[in-house]
Amino acid sequence: MTEHGLELVTRDHKQTDTVIAVSPSVAIGNRDVCIIAGPCAVESESQIVELAHVLRAAGATILRGGAFKPRTSPYTFPGLGTKGLTSLRRAGDETGLPVVTEVMDVGSVEEVEEHADILQIGSRNMQNYPLLRRVGQCVKPVLLKRGIAATLWEWLSSAEYIANGGNLEIILCERGIRGFDPATRNLFDVTAVPAVKRLTHLPVIADPSHGTGDRTLVPPMALAAVAAGADAVMVEVHTHPDNALSDGPQSIEPAVFEELVKRLRLVASAVGRSVLQATKPVHSP
Ligand code: PEP
Ligand code: MN
Q: Global pTM?
């Protein structure tokens, strides 16, 4: 046991990097950097299916989209729930892209695990211990976001809860912490990427969309995250960001995403890596 009381998630326990197979053709944590993209929320089946095809063609390797949305205000769009899950699954199946979506409570874990390839625990739930224990029993990988005021050890302690339940397939996601300056939604902690990698063998990814809250800052911070060693970047993309039902200000348009992927390839190769490309055939609708 380390000084922080952790075992399974530390480099003391395991020195080699953990590689997590998300699907037969997609893994996170090896030399290839994954690109996770999609809307903040699934807004309709046609929206997510059409966008998934565009994103795949532009270079995305995993599709994201929230069905159960943790919203700061109870009066804003809470997500489509079950319908959002089935639509996301359909978009994933049509494009061959694995899908990640958030699970907010213990009672929804079974349903989300049935439809998703990766279960996301959002920043607000990073210390929801019953939820962490429950996803620890899942057979699918878990994407664990850093809480808005969590230290690296607190974040790793939450990962340890999941690992302790038997699920060692945990992907850590830096998504910005609460700073003092309202100029950006959050303070995107790029340092956390190599700093937490020094402590853990788990893959570490970065979400510059929530990290900055500003679509003009998403491309430079996505590039910075890959330069810093992130195993994947997760970005919010929307066809019409100004009309998005959630997180429009931080959503980039597909054309910006396409350009970003090209630049991510350059940065990845500059740091001795490459960007994973989707290989599974696309099934037509
Ligand atoms: C999200 O990714 O949709 C999300 C709500 O993120 P976070 O938990 O980081 O706010
Ligand atoms: Mn969002």
A: 0.97
Is any atom of ligand 1 closer than 6 Å to the C-beta of 100? no
pLDDT (tens digit per residue) in 45-80? 999 999 999 999 999 999 999 999 999 999 999 999
Pairs from 267-273 (Cβ < 8 Å, separation ≥ 24):
267/223, 267/226, 267/227, 268/33, 268/226, 270/227, 271/226, 271/227, 271/229, 272/31, 273/31, 273/32, 273/33, 273/226
247 close to 209: Cβ distance less than 8 angstroms: yes
Q: Is 70 in the pocket of ligand 1 (CB under 6 A)?
A: yes
Each residue's pLDDT tens digit, 193-220: 999 999 999 999 999 999 999 999 999 9
H helices of 73-120, in order, are 82-95, 109-115
Q: Give the domain ranges of the chain.
A: 20-272
* 20-272 belongs to CATH 3.30.160.270: no
Ligand 1 contacts CB of residue 145 (under 6 A): yes
